[in-house]
Write a structure and sequence with these properties.
The complex is a heterodimer of chains A (369) and B (628).
Chain A: E1 4-14, E2 17-27, E3 32-36, H1 43-51, E4 58-63, E5 66-67, E6 78-81, H2 93-103, H3 108-122, H4 137-149, E7 155-159, H5 167-184, E8 187-192, H6 195-201, E9 204-209, E10 212-217, H7 219-224, H8 229-234, E11 241-249, E12 252-255, E13 263-266, H9 268-274, E14 281-286, E15 291-294, E16 303-312, E17 317-323, E18 326-332, E19 345-350, E20 356-359
Chain B: H1 12-42, H2 63-74, H3 79-86, H4 104-116, E1 124-126, H5 142-154, H6 159-166, H7 194-205, E2 211-213, H8 216-226, H9 234-241, H10 262-272, E3 279-281, H11 283-297, H12 300-307, H13 328-338, E4 348-350, H14 353-365, H15 368-375, H16 389-399, H17 401-422, H18 426-454, H19 460-472, H20 475-489, H21 495-499, H22 506-518, H23 521-529, H24 534-545, H25 547-562, H26 566-571, H27 580-589, H28 593-620
Antiparallel strand pairs in B: 1-2, 3-4
Helix pairs in contact in B: 2-16, 3-8, 4-16, 17-28, 18-22, 18-25, 18-27, 19-22, 25-28, 27-28
The chains are: A alpha+beta (369), B mainly alpha (628).
Chain lengths: 369, 628
C-alpha cells in the first residue's frame, strides 16, 4: 500500500519538446488510478517514467516514502504488465513467472509456493509447463499478470494490457483485474485509451492530453463535471455536444444561426454565470442523453434542426442532428420515437439543469457561482 | 501464396506456362545433380574408365569391364607387362578381349603347377602394387598397402625404428619408397639391402594370382619388334625370313638356341638383352665359366678379396640364384656370356617360369599329343605351349566378382582415408580449428551486435558502417596484410593465426544486430523489471531467442573454417599445422582422378551432414520468433 507522488516532472525525448510538461500527481496507497487519454498524449511515457524504464528530464518521483527518481526499475519494487504481454517465448509459463524471483535469488521452495498460489488464483495450474505460444491471448495476459503478482510488489503498472484482446475477453479480464485489486489492495496504475475501461476499473481517473493533466477525479465526477471541453469530449461515448453561444446581454446567451431564429438561454443561472464572465462568446456543453427530441411545437422554444443519421444500438438510439455547421447528437432510451426520416426537420431542446459552460478561450469550465 | 488463382489454372496458356516452368526447374535440377553424380561415380573409377561419363560405372554391371579393370590393376597399369606376360599385342587395357570361355581343367594344371613347383621370386613381379602413390597418378593398391603394413609392423610403427633398422630416413609411411623392379632388364640388379630383403620376404608371401610372370618369349617378341630391320612390322619380318607369322608375339622362343633363321636373333637377345638371372649353363658351360674366372683372377684369394667371399677353390663357385642380385659375380657372369670365345652359345640354357611350366607339362603328359588330345589343342611341341595367364586371370575375376567390385568401389576412398590418418594431424587440426571458429563466432559477433542493438552509442552509425565496410574487401585483399600482422605478432603456425582473423565478421554482426533489433523491446524491459542482469538479458533473451540465426552463423563459421585452404596454408605453412584441406590438395596433386573425386566426396560429407541435420533450424533463421 504505497502512495505515489510525482512532483513537477518533465520528460523530453528531443530537447525542448516536452512530452510531459510539468506534471504533478498524487496517488494514494491502494488506489486504482487509471491514466486515460488519446494516443500520443504521453500516458505510456508517464507510466514508463514511474517504472523507471525512461529517465526523467526534470522533477521527482516518490513511491511510498522512497525517492525513486534515479533508481533502476528493479530497485523500485514495482511490476509491469505490457500490452503485448512480453512473455519470454522460450520459457514455460512456470519459468516465466519464476524468472523475476530467480533473479532475486529466492529459494526454490519459496518460488514453487508462490507460483502455486498465483496460478491457483489466475486459473493457470494446468498450463504451467506450456510455452507461451501454446496459449491463447487471454491466457498469455493472465500469465503476464501472474508474473507481476508473484513478486508482490508495492505498485502494479499496467500498460494497456487489454487492448490486444477481443471484446469479450476484455470484459472477462477486466473483472479479473478488478477483483485482483480488491483482493490484494495494492496500488495500481493502469494506462488505457479506452474510456470504458477507465470508467469501470478506476477509483481515480487521470485524464491526460498532450502531456498535461486535464482532470483528476472519480469516474462519476469526470463524466458529470468535466473540467474542460477535452475531458467532456473524451469521456463518454459519444462525447459531450459543444456549441458556441453568443453572449447577448447580462442574462441571455443565444445560439445564432442565420437560417433559423436564434435559440436563447436565459434565466437566473445564466445571470449568475455571466457575472464573472466578460467575454463575447461562451461554449455550452450538453451530454447527448440530455438532448430531448420533439415534434414541431411540442416543446416551447424548441430548436429546429435537420436529421442526418440514426444509429439504433438496441437499448438506445443515437440521432445525429445538424444545426447549420454544428453537429448535435441525441441519445434516446425509448424504442425509436417517430421523429421522421433522414433529412426531415426535427425539433430538440436541452435539459437546462444539465448544461455545462466552458470558457471560449481557455476551454475550461466556467463555474456558476 | 500461389502465383495463379485456381480459376486461372484452367486457362490453356497458364497450363502451358506452368508446364514450361516445371520443365525448366527440372532441367535446372538435373544440371545440378548430374555433375554431383559424375563426381560420385568418378570416385570409384580407375585409370581405365576415368574419362567415361557414365553415372553408373560399367565395371559394376559388366564382368568384361571388371576383368579389364582387374588386369589393369594386376599389371600395375603397365601395358608392356601385360604384353610380355600374355604374349599378346594390345595398345591399351581397354582393348583387351576377355576369353570367351574358361577351360577349368587347363587352368587346374596351371594352378597345380604354380603350387607344386618352386618358382623363384626373382622370376615374377608383384601385381596390384604401385610402388609410389604419386607415380603416374595412381592409387594405393592392395599389395602396396600390404607391404607398407609389413614394414610398419616390422618397425612397430615407429619411424625411429625404421631409421635404425634400414639406415635410411623415412619421409612418411605413406611415401614408403621402393622403386619398381625391372627384372627383365639386363641392367637391373636386385639391391643387396635390408629393405630389398624385406621386400622379397613379402613377395614370397603374396597370393599366387597376384604374381606377374615374366615371359621370356614375350620379351623376345618385343625385342624382335623393336629391331630396326623390321621396323615393328611383322610383314617385313615375314618377307625377309620367308615365314608367315601373324604377329611378333606368335614367334616361339625355345630354351636352347633354335635352328634356322631365328638363331642369330636368339643369340643376340640372350647374350646382350636378357637379364642374366634367366641364363643357365650346361655342365660344359659351367666348366668354361670356372676357366674364365681362373684366367681372370689366377689365384682364388684374389677372387675372394674382390668378391668378399671365402671359396677354397674355383670349383666351389656356384652362381645359381645369385645372378639376379647386385654382386661381382653377376658382373663377371655378364661379361662371360657376352663373348662366344669364353661361352659358346650351345652351352646356354634359358630357365624361366615358362620353361618350368613346360617341364611340368612334359613330366605330366610325356607327349604333346596326349596334352593336345585332352584339351583339344594343336601344339607342335611343349615349347609352344604358353602360360594360360589370361584364362587364369579371367577365372579368378569370375570367381571373385563381388570382392573385386567391392575393392574397386572402396579403394579410392580407402586411399584418401589412409592418407589423412597416416599423415600428420590433418583431422585433429581441422576439428580443433572448426570447433574454435564456431565458438568464437558465436561469442564475439553476438556481443558486438548486442552492444550495437541495445545501447545507443554516440557514433553507432559509423561503427556499424565500419563493420559493414569490412564486407566489401574480398579475402584475397586482406590475406597479405593479415599474414604480415600474424607474422609480426608471432602467431604463424599456431591456431591463433587461423582463428583470430576470422573471429569477428562484419556480416554476422550486421545480421545479428538486425535480429536483436527485431526482438520486442518489452522483453528487455520486462527483464529489467524482473531484476535481470545484463548477462541474463544477453544470454536468456537475446541469445536464446536467436538460435536460428546463431545456427546460420555457426554453419557459416564451420564452412569457412572447414573449406579454408588458401588462408590455412599461408598462415600455417608448417606441416604439423596443416588442416585436412591442405593435406587433400597436396594429395590431389599426386593421385589418380578417381582418388581426387573420392577426396572431394569425402570432404563434402561433413558439410552435407551438418546441413541435413540443421536444415530446419537454418530455414527458421529467417522467421522472427516474436510472440504476439
Amino acid at each position: 500500500m504505497s502512495s505515489i507522488k510525482l512532483k513537477n516532472i518533465k520528460k523530453c525525448y528531443v530537447k525542448d519538446t516536452p512530452v510531459i510538461k510539468d506534471l504533478n500527481l498524487d496517488i494514494a496507497g491502494g488506489e486504482f488510478a487509471v491514466i486515460v487519454g488519446p494516443s500520443g498524449c504521453g500516458k505510456s511515457t508517464l507510466l514508463r517514467l514511474i517504472a523507471g524504464l525512461e529517465e526523467l528530464t526534470e522533477g521527482e518521483i516518490h513511491i511510498g516514502d522512497t525517492r525513486v527518481t534515479t533508481m533502476v526499475p528493479k530497485d523500485r519494487n514495482i511490476s509491469m504488465v505490457f500490452q503485448n504481454y512480453a512473455l519470454y517465448p522460450q520459457m514455460t509459463v512456470f519459468d516465466n513467472m519464476a524468472f523475476g524471483l530467480r533473479m532475486r535469488k529466492e529459494s526454490k521452495t519459496f518460488i514453487k509456493e508462490k507460483i502455486d498460489w498465483v496460478s491457483e488464483k489466475l486459473g493457470l495450474k494446468e498450463y504451467l509447463f506450456r510455452k507461451p505460444k501454446e496459449l491463447s491471448g487471454g491466457q498469455k495476459q493472465r500469465v503476464a499478470l501472474g508474473r507481476s503478482i508473484v513478486r508482490e510488489p508495492k505498485v502494479f503498472l499496467f500498460d494497456e494490457p487489454l487492448s490486444n484482446l477481443d471484446a469479450k475477453l476484455r470484459i472477462e479480464m477486466r473483472s479479473v483485474i478488478k477483483s485482483l485489486h480488491e483482493e490484494l489492495g495494492t496500488t495500481m496504475i493502469y494506462v488505457t485509451h479506452d474510456q470504458v475501461e477507465a470508467m469501470t476499473l478506476g477509483t481515480k481517473i487521470i485524464a491526460l492530453n498532450e502531456g498535461e493533466i486535464h482532470q483528476v477525479d472519480s469516474p462519476i465526477n469526470l463524466y458529470n463535471n468535466p473540467a474542460d471541453t477535452f475531458v467532456g469530449k473524451f469521456i463518454g461515448n459519444p462525447g459531450i455536444n459543444l456549441m458556441v453561444f453568443n453572449v447577448v446581454s447580462g442574462s441571455q446567451i443565444e445560439l445564432h444561426d442565420e437560417q433559423t431564429r436564434p435559440f436563447t438561454i436565459h434565466g437566473k443561472h445564466v445571470k449568475s454565470l455571466l457575472k464573472n464572465y466578460k467575454k463575447e462568446k461562451l461554449i455550452v456543453g450538453v451530454r447527448p442523453e440530455y438532448v430531448k427530441l420533439a415534434k414541431p411545437n411540442e416543446i416551447k422554444g424548441a430548436i429546429k434542426g435537420q436529421l442526418k443519421l440514426i444509429e439504433p444500438l438496441g437499448n438506445e438510439t443515437l440521432y445525429h442532428i445538424t444545426l447549420g455547421d454544428v453537429q448535435i447528437i441525441s441519445r434516446q432510451y425509448y424504442d425509436s420515437i417517430d421523429i421522421g426520416s433522414l433529412g426531415d426537420e426535427v425539433y430538440f431542446s436541452f435539459e437546462m439543469e444539465h448544461l455545462s459552460f466552458f470558457d471560449f478561450e481557455t476551454k475550461k469550465k466556467v463555474f456558476v457561482t | 501464396m500461389s502465383i495463379f488463382l485456381k480459376s486461372e489454372r484452367k486457362n490453356s496458356k497458364v497450363i502451358l506456362l506452368l508446364i514450361s516452368i516445371y520443365a525448366f526447374l527440372t532441367l535446372g535440377a538435373l544440371t545440378m545433380i548430374y555433375p554431383l553424380l559424375l563426381m560420385l561415380s568418378g570416385s570409384v573409377k580407375g585409370k581405365l574408365d576415368a574419362y567415361e561419363f557414365d553415372v553408373v560405372p560399367k565395371f559394376l554391371l559388366d564382368d568384361k569391364t571388371l576383368f579389364k579393370r582387374y588386369v589393369e590393376h594386376k599389371y600395375n597399369e603397365k601395358i608392356e607387362e601385360y604384353q610380355v606376360a600374355n604374349k599378346e599385342f594390345i595398345r591399351i587395357f581397354k582393348a583387351i578381349v576377355p576369353p570367351d570361355q574358361i577351360d577349368n581343367a587347363k587352368i587346374e594344371d596351371w594352378i597345380n603347377f604354380q603350387k607344386s613347383s618352386i618358382i623363384p621370386a626373382e622370376f615374377y613381379h608383384v601385381g596390384n602394387m604401385y610402388y609410389l602413390p604419386g607415380e603416374g597418378n595412381r592409387v594405393t593398391t592392395r599389395n602396396t598397402r600390404g607391404f607398407r603394413n609389413h614394414i610398419r609392423d616390422l618397425c612397430s610403427n615407429s619411424p625411429e625404428n625404421f631409421r635404425k633398422y634400414f639406415d635410411t630416413q623415412l619421409p612418411d609411411w605413406y611415401f614408403l619408397d621402393l622403386s619398381p623392379e625391372r627384372l627383365l632388364d639386363r641392367n637391373y640388379k636386385i639391391p643387396r639391402t635390408k629393405f630389398a630383403d624385406e621386400f622379397y620376404k613379402f613377395k614370397q608371401k603374396i597370393p599366387i594370382h597376384d604374381r606377374v610372370y615374366l615371359s621370356i618369349g614375350g620379351d623376345f617378341s618385343r625385342y624382335l619388334k623393336s629391331l630396326n630391320d623390321y621396323n615393328g612390322n611383322i610383314s617385313n619380318f615375314n618377307s625377309k625370313n620367308k615365314t608367315d607369322y601373324e604377329s611378333f608375339f606368335k614367334i616361339p622362343f625355345s630354351s636352347t638356341i633354335p635352328s634356322g633363321i631365328l638363331a642369330s636373333h636368339w643369340e643376340n637377345y640372350v647374350r646382350h638383352e636378357l637379364n642374366p638371372q634367366f641364363i643357365l649353363l650346361s655342365a660344359k658351360g659351367f666348366q668354361n665359366f670356372t676357366i674364365y674366372l681362373k684366367e681372370k683372377f689366377i689365384e682364388i684369394d684374389d677372387l675372394n678379396l674382390e668378391w668378399r667371399t671365402d671359396y677354397n677353390s674355383f670349383e666351389e663357385i656356384d652362381f645359381i640364384g645369385l645372378t639376379a642380385y647386385e654382386s661381382n659375380i653377376s658382373i663377371n657372369f655378364v661379361n662371360f656370356i657376352k663373348s662366344n670365345n669364353s661361352c659358346p652359345i650351345d652351352e646356354i640354357i634359358i630357365k624361366s617360369t615358362e620353361t618350368l611350366w613346360r617341364d611340368y607339362l612334359k613330366s605330366k603328359y610325356y607327349n604333346i599329343n596326349t596334352y593336345n588330345e585332352k584339351y583339344n589343342l594343336q601344339y607342335i611341341s611343349f615349347a609352344n605351349v604358353p602360360m594360360p595367364v589370361k584364362d587364369a586371370d579371367f577365372k579368378f575375376v569370375i570367381e571373385n566378382k563381388n570382392q573385386l567390385r567391392w575393392e574397386y568401389l572402396t579403394h579410392n576412398y580407402r586411399m584418401v582415408i589412409e592418407y589423412l590418418t597416416l599423415f600428420g594431424d590433418g583431422l585433429k587440426n581441422t576439428i580443433i580449428y572448426c570447433f574454435f571458429s564456431i565458438m568464437t563466432a558465436l561469442i564475439i559477433n553476438p556481443l558486438a551486435a548486442y552492444a550495437l542493438s541495445r545501447y545507443q552509442l554516440s557514433n553507432q552509425y559509423k561503427i556499424l558502417l565500419f563493420f559493414i565496410a569490412t564486407m566489401t574487401f574480398p579475402p584475397m585483399v586482406t590475406m597479405i596484410p593479415n599474414y604480415l600482422l600474424m607474422k609480426d605478432i608471432g602467431f604463424l603456425n599456431t591456431f591463433f593465426a587461423l582463428i583470430i582473423p576470422g573471429m569477428a565478421n562484419g556480416y554476422s554482426i550486421f545480421l545479428l544486430k538486425g535480429f536483436f533489433d527485431s526482438l520486442p523491446k518489452e522483453l528487455y524491459e520486462a527483464a529489467d523489471i524482473d531484476a535481470a542482469s545484463e548477462y541474463h538479458k544477453f544470454w536468456h533473451i537475446a541469445m536464446s531467442l536467436s538460435k536460428p540465426i546463431l545456427a546460420v552463423i555457426a554453419l557459416g563459421a564451420f564452412n569457412g573454417a572447414y573449406s579454408n585452404f588458401m588462408f590455412a596454408v599461408i598462415l600455417c605453412p608448417d606441416e604439423k599445422m596443416w588442416t585436412m584441406m591442405v593435406w587433400l590438395v597436396q594429395m590431389q596433386a599426386l593421385s589418380s582422378r578417381g582418388a581426387v573425386m573420392a577426396s572431394l566426396v569425402l570432404s563434402a560429407l561433413p558439410t552435407l551432414i551438418v546441413f541435413i541435420f540443421a536444415q530446419n533450424i537454418i530455414l527458421r533463421g529467417i522467421v522472427l520468433p516474436v510472440e504476439k
